[in-house]
Amino acid sequence: MAGLWKMIGWFLSVTGILVQSGPPQIRVVTAIHIETTAEEFPESQIVTDPEMLKAFMYYLRKLDPYTATDIDPDSFRADSAYLTVEYSDGNSTQYTQLYTDYLKTNNGPWKKIDPEDGAGLWGILACISEVRGI
C-alpha cells in the first residue's frame, strides 16, 4: 500500500498537479516603473506609494482584455504607456497600453480593451503628475 501512495505522489509531482509544499507564497507589489510617449507625462517615474500602487493594481485588474489582434503598434499613432510591476519575490510583469484601446502583457499578443476603461490609466498618471508637480 505504501508503494501505491509513493507512486501517486510521484505522478502528481510529475504532472504538475502537486507543485508546492508548505504554505502558499504571498507576493506584494513593491513598485511600478512608468514610461510613456505622451507629452503630458515626459518623465519616467517610479511609484512606491501604497495608495498609488493600489490604484494601479485596481486599474489593471479591472481591465478585461479580449480578442487578440494583429495590430502593428508602429502604425498606430497614439500615446503608449509602459508599466513594469515589480513584486516582492523579485519577479516583474510588463504591461504596454496603446492609448485607451489595446493592452499587451509581457510578450503576449495585443488585446482590445474597452476605451472607457483604458482611459483610467491616463487619469491615474494625471493624478501622479499633479501630486508631484510635474
Account of the 3D structure:
A seven-stranded antiparallel β-sheet has the order 2-1-4-5-6-7-3. It starts with a helix and ends with a helix. The chain is an alpha+beta fold and 134 residues long. A hairpin with a 4-residue loop joins strand 4 and strand 5 (92-98). The protein is built from three helices and seven strands. Helix 2 runs antiparallel to helix 3. It has a single domain, classed as Immunoglobulin-like.
Tell me the overall shape. globular
Over all CA atoms, what is the radius of gyration? 20 Å
In CATH, the architecture is: Sandwich
The largest beta-sheet arranges its strands as 2-1-4-5-6-7-3
Number of extended strands: 7
Short descriptors:
134 residues, alpha+beta, Immunoglobulin-like, seven-stranded antiparallel sheet, 7 strands
Q: How would you summarize the topology of this molecule?
A:
Elements: H1 2-15, E1 29-36, E2 45-47, H2 50-62, E3 66-69, E4 80-87, E5 92-98, E6 102-105, E7 110-112, H3 115-132
Antiparallel strand pairs: 1-2, 1-4, 3-7, 4-5, 5-6, 6-7
Helix pairs in contact: 2-3
Briefly, what is this?
With 134 residues, this protein is of the alpha+beta class.
